[in-house]
Amino acid sequence: MSPRGARARRANGKKRAVWLAAGVVVLGGTGVTAVAVSGGGEDAGPGDGSRPVKAHVLALDGKDPKRRALPRTETQTFSLIGVSWEDSGDTFEGTAQLRTRKAATGEWSEWRDLDFDVRAPESAEGDASDVRGASEPLWVGPSDGVEARVVADGKETAVPDALRLDMIDPGKTVKGKGNGGDKGSGKGNGKGNGKPTASPDATPEPSDPAPTDAPTTAAPSADPGDTTGGSGGGEGSQPPTDEPTGSASAPAEPAPSTAPTESAPGTDPTEGPPDEPTGAPTGAPTDEPTGRPSAEPPTSEAPTDPAPSTVPTEEPTGPAPTTDPSGAPEPSATAPTAPAIVSRADWGADESLVQDPPAYLNKVDAVFVHHTAGTNDYTCADSPAIIRAILTFHVQTNGWNDIGYNFFVDKCGTVFEGRAGGVDRPVLGAHTYGFNSYSSGISLLGDYENGGTPTAAAKQAIADLAAWKLGLHGVDPEAKVTLTAAADTGVWTKGQAATLNTVSGHRDGYATLCPGASLYSALPGIRSAAGNSPYATGN
Asked: Does residue 456 sit in helix, strand or coil?
């Protein structure tokens, strides 16, 4: 935890584009300042039917240093909400609760708590001068009113400076017409995904298809818009230009067999095996611990068999993340076929929000599993809009370069591309403070701490994705790995050797409840399923 007195403005961070675009207004006579923030992309053309993502903020001003309260206030429509403050180094330990009004019915929700398990990445991305502290965003569906109360608890003596509410309207995209573009994502499809193809709006809830004799694929899920409730970067250079092919689809729950069924929501599966990628990164498996990224050239070996409780006397060294695409591992002809992944273009990513190209790791040593918290009260047809809203929150509220997670999975078992740079590339994410430079992050949409239970489809999708991603680098999903913490995380101190499962929960690396009790307890089974997955190396 960072003390309030340790507010050092980032000296080496660069200021990104400012999106404050509309005028300041006062809502409902409350004296609360509302600032509209544009989504960064251009409005859709006439007759297109799409609507850009929009963000709005409400400043939470007040005289009481320990408390901020907002009476019921009418707002512009939003579907995702959180709170943020000026300095990301100022860790807030208080409580924040919200009530929202449904746009369709005018009904007010119960009070809901926001989670504060977010830290700016330990990479250069987290040092940008415009990075803000923030809560986890909460998905509430289309709403047009809010009531809020924020209280400094425990050791906190005051709420953070420049406290505000951040509200995101995820907009709407037309079938087969996302806002995705070339920028940083491999011609909009994330390298390893096929070209987007439209599919019906409806997405089925979790189901249990029977095993088939051969994998099947279908068209990727296009964004259904928000008719059922609406729908989170590193420094580097442009991504590699060689582009493997693959299949982007939204699969139903894979059956536990050596040939899972993959079908797009609302469509009839089409026979035929998934397209083989023409390339994917490789990395020799190793039992040796991986050193902390450093600007210095890699040492010959990282420390062997370290005790997790000891702190190295020397600064550990190891492979550094690279901003040069040539530094990413070269494709391998033996890489396993990728599971179906919905591309950024297909879920409607606004690539104009992403200002800097992706950075790459030398190798993915581990996968960290997360949940988005928030709510389980969403349909799978909402998933693209939820991810669009998280992208906007991570960029425009947190001040990160791109969405933090490398991948998303929803409760129907559909896998979505997260951070741009190529699904088959070792892209540096912003998901597990202290361990981003070794790992890929997979986040399950929903809250699995407060009663939510991950579906069989979601668990199998996480297992298959982890098996494939780790397999690209020769890593066994049922093994352990020793990594050196790059920061103090509340679980590990900077420089400490951490022995972790290659498929770990967020809480294994950072002091948080994420990925929630029920999802965390499912991880042993997920690791076992990953080891037996048809996407695992050697299966």
From this structure: helix
* Residue corresponding to tokens 């909009």: 188
Alpha carbon separation from 29 to 23, 32, 73, 101 (Å, rounded): 17, 8, 9, 18
The answer for residues whose C-beta is within 8 angstroms of residue 137's C-beta and 6 or more apart is 80, 81, 82, 166, 168, 232, 372, 374, 389, 390, 393, 397
- The yes-or-no verdict on residue 303 having pLDDT over 70 is no
pLDDT tens-place string over residues 44-101: 444 567 889 999 999 999 999 999 999 999 999 999 999 999 988 788 888 999 999 9
Question: What sign does the CA torsion over 473, 477, 483, 487 have?
Answer: positive
Q: How confident is the model at residue 537 (pLDDT cuts 50, 70, 90)?
A: confident
CA 329 to chain centre: 23
Task: Give the rounded percent of residues in the chain with a pLDDT score beyond 90.
Answer: 51
What is residue 97's three-state secondary structure?
Answer: strand
Q: What is the mean pLDDT of residues 509-517?
A: 95
Distance between CA atoms of residues 344 and 327, nearest Å? 24
Beta bridge partners of 134: 84
Cβ–Cβ under 8 Å, residues 475 and 283: yes
Q: Check: CB of residue 244 under 8 Å from CB of residue 191.
A: yes
Q: Output the pTM of the full model.
A: 0.70
Top pLDDT among 191 and 530 is at 530
Omega prior to 515 cis, within 30 of 0? yes
Chain-centre distance for alpha carbon 187 = 20
Query: Tokens standing for 275?
Result: 């397209």
Expressed in percent and rounded to 5, the helix, strand and coil fractions of the chain are: 15, 20, 65
